[in-house]
Amino acid sequence: MTGALLANTALFRGASPQEAEAMLNCLGAVERSYCKGERICRSGDYMTDLGMVLSGSVLIQTDDLWGNTTVLDKAGPGQIFAETYACVPGEPLMVDVVAAEAARVLFLKVERVLHVCSHTCAHHSKLIRNLLLLSAQKNLNLSRKIFHTSAKTIRGRLLSYLSYQARRSGGPSFSIPFNRQQLADYLNVERSALSNELSKMQRDGLIRLEKNQFTLIQDVSGLSSRV
Amino acid sequence: MTGALLANTALFRGASPQEAEAMLNCLGAVERSYCKGERICRSGDYMTDLGMVLSGSVLIQTDDLWGNTTVLDKAGPGQIFAETYACVPGEPLMVDVVAAEAARVLFLKVERVLHVCSHTCAHHSKLIRNLLLLSAQKNLNLSRKIFHTSAKTIRGRLLSYLSYQARRSGGPSFSIPFNRQQLADYLNVERSALSNELSKMQRDGLIRLEKNQFTLIQDVSGLSSRV
DNA sequence: TCCGAAGTGTTGTTATAACAACATACTTGT
DNA sequence: ACAAGTATGTTGTTATAACAACACTTCGGA
């Protein structure tokens, strides 16, 4: 029954529902259920398994030195978490994982994922490639975030981010997947300061915006080519 | 002759020099030489190969919207670069790679790395695991940098970074692998402001420092446990 | 239709970091 | 031992973002 769900995940992509389900044995799969708010992994834990959300959702969060909790990420059905830590033995978890709502989680032993057991597991090697792909993609996302937050000013960060979105959309007009608060969090700035700067940029004729729809004006001749 | 070098790299770890060299055929290896300053990869390129530095060194750098060049990383003999992009088809390079000095670079087709060719390649599957490990490690490094630069104040960033270093060293005294400028770059702040804040923190009795040797005072009772 | 909640924009004040400029170490080669 | 260069710390000024407080808009129920 979980096979159908698994076959649709990025991790098991390429396997049929039957094949996916059949692999679970090799992978030391264990399923657990959690109540809303329950802690699934705790900062400092050493992970030997990666987690895959089967139902509900989990939050990846961290408490800073002063006890403020920040949500870093959210994983829903079919998405995996803690896989990075599980892949690097001896590296303690730097975050907490808690259930955002009632959730079922499947834990897979990374050791078993990485070492092809026998020829009965047809898609095992595809599984490893999928995991590498996920890791590389996460890598790029992290790099991009660092890239977009490296500018000192809010305007600089916005231009970096918006230029990227424009390039990715293939034109000067595009919409972004964040609301203002989320964009502020992503760029690591204050929401109200962000709103303020967006207004100024519109007044300065750099952009036009309507809700989440942006247009980059003045394709800053000569600048846009490289960045 | 390159076998001995290869066998010592993180990517080929586990293979003997002979085995490593023998694998090069399967991997579509091509060696290229570059003069100092020569551009090896250009922002926007689509990578099908990962690069491994055989000799010399290369810089991973980026030009921002205003043309300022920032060095993001440096790769020396045995280290690889652009592997993340090569692992995610269709994702254009966001950085430039240039030779920091005269350099020889080995390019390996990621497609060939990921797909085990035949049983003659004994360590091919180990190679994939090595690549995944490298990717996961890079991931953690990026996450840590984001983590340490998420605080709004310089002091907050320093406390985050220094607490981590203390935890990792297993005690309140430790030395760091950065000079002031490098630390400032890492934390994304101004060098002189960093120096200033370090002095203040010492005056405030939070830390003691002597060159790159730090001691965290007042193991901030109650706070340290989680972070 | 009205209410409340969430999202967004605006403004003024305050805290903070960037910046510039310089003084003081500390290296390193000759 | 000296000079030149690099690294680091110090200070005052200025630019900028955080913060707080509020007005305005959507939007989705009740």
What does the model show?
Two copies of one chain form a homodimer. Chain A contains eight helices and eleven strands. Chain A has 227 residues and is an alpha+beta fold. Residues 220-227 of chain A have low confidence and may be disordered. The N and C termini of chain A lie far apart (47 Å). In chain A, a hairpin with a 5-residue loop joins β4 (58-63) and β5 (69-75). The radius of gyration of chain A is 21 Å and the shape is elongated. The structure holds a DNA duplex (30 and 30 nucleotides).
Short description:
Chain A is α+β, with helices and mostly antiparallel strands. Chain A is 37% helix and 23% strand.
How are the elements arranged and paired?
The structure is a homodimer of 227-residue chains.
Chain A (H helix, E strand, L loop, with lengths): L1 H6 L9 H7 L6 E5 L4 E3 L7 E7 L2 E6 L5 E7 L4 E2 L1 H5 L8 E4 L3 E7 H5 L9 H25 L5 H16 L3 E3 L4 H8 L3 H13 L3 E4 L2 E4 L11
Antiparallel strand pairs in A: 1-8, 2-7, 3-6, 3-8, 4-5, 4-7, 9-11, 10-11
The structure holds a DNA duplex (30 and 30 nucleotides).
What is the CA-atom radius of gyration of chain A, in angstroms? 21 Å
- Let me know the largest β-sheet of chain A: 4 strands, antiparallel
Q: Which class of secondary structure composition applies to the elements of chain A?
A: alpha+beta
The chain pair with the largest interface is: A-B, 47 and 47 residues
What portion of residues of chain A belong to β-strands?
15-25%
Number of helices of chain A: 8
Rounded average pLDDT of chain A: 91
Helix content of chain A: 25-40%
